[in-house]
Amino acid sequence: MAIRKLILTAILAATVASSENTPASEGAKARIAKETRHEILSLPYFDVLDNIEFRVDSYNVTLIGQVTRPTLKSDAQSAVRGIDGVETSRCMLFAASIRKWPSHEQRAREM
Question: Which pLDDT tens digit goes with each residue over 19-68?
Fold first, then answer.
């Protein structure tokens, strides 16, 4: 009788442990990817010089790329964290400096 309880307890513990690490279904991954793309494109200061890519692994989203404004890094990560179903988000974005072209007046002074 004690052995039966021990076996049932072990089976129950294995079932609970495996259900915690279940990978996301393809539908859930597609939904998270769609919402992540929407959130990134909806950021107020996201423009053509920013390069933000993302990867969805199970319920985790990783942001990769370069942005022109340092505040865009935190805005993007906050937006992704707010998506239903996202457990963690990693931010591998870095702020790239953009060289400003000299104005016509500056070029004229240099000549």
Answer: 445 677 888 999 999 999 999 999 999 988 899 999 999 899 999 999 99
> Which residues have C-beta within 8 Å of that of residue 43, sequence separation ≥ 6?
72, 75, 76, 79
Residues with Cβ within 8 Å of 91's Cβ and at least 6 positions away in sequence, in order, are 63, 73, 74, 76, 77
Q: Model's pTM, two decimal places? A: 0.67
Answer whether 60's CB lies under 8 Å from 89's CB.
Answer: yes
CATH domain 24-110 topology = Alpha-Beta Plaits (3.30.70)
* Residue-range domain boundaries for the chain: 24-110
Pull the structure tokens for residue 64.
């990769």
